[in-house]
Amino acid sequence: MFSLKIIVLFTVILSLHYDFCWCRCADAEYEMDGRCCPMCGPGYHVYRHCTEDSSTTCAPCPEFTYIDEPSSYTKCFDCTVCDESRGLRVNKACTRWSDTVCEPLEQFYCTERYKDSCRNAAKHSECSAGQYIKQAGTPSTDTVCADCEADTYSNGSFSSCLPHTQ
User: Fold this and answer.
1) How far apart are CA 53 and CA 84, in angstroms?
2) How many domains is the chain partitioned into structurally?
3) Strand 44-48 relative to strand 57-60, pairing
4) A Gene Ontology MF term for this entry (predicted)?
């Protein structure tokens, strides 16, 4: 009885594994109507899916669109616009095979990243009178301000506090 359970369990597992492996397309392929079609490379979209008699037909992405990896997509993605109102400018222009890479404008730092690109930026903080710039802002960090100690002063634009004159 015990060996019968093992045989049934082994048969079920083997058949599940066999079906799983048998139906799967290769990494650079996608399934369409029961067939494994070759994917289009970066910069190209599927114009026509493969058939029994022909391979996948690929077409280049139109201007201002891209696809950055092999895919079965029938349309390309719109290129990102680096919007100045969000504190951004173009670091690297969009190509058929890569999206636009945005970076913060001067005096701004990135507050939201996606892959290698900045999606949103904010203006660096300004230090107030009585504070000094402890750490200047960078494209990835905000300005760090610190309070002046007693008998020192700063108008907020100094990198250290100065002593009051006697």
Assistant:
1) 50
2) 3
3) antiparallel
4) transmembrane signaling receptor activity
